[in-house]
Amino acid sequence: MYDRRREEARLAVRQAVQRLTEDAAALTAASAEAREIGLTTRAEDLRRAVLTAWCAGVARGDLAQDARVEIGVIDDWVVRTSPLGS
Q: Taxonomically, which superkingdom (predicted)?
């Protein structure tokens, strides 16, 4: 059960990256404001997917690999959200 939950969470992270990548290409023709809103929204979707996966017990290195970001980015997202990181 726990492994399945982690795998589903990792899949959600990979899907969020895919949506961000696809939307970034599609938004190149949009106005600057629409592009910024669209990319900000997709980046926030990715951050939330990463946090959900982290809470499910996915390792930071796996999250970084799935999200295609450096581990430091994962750390920033986790610390920024943690009550102890404020």
A: Bacteria
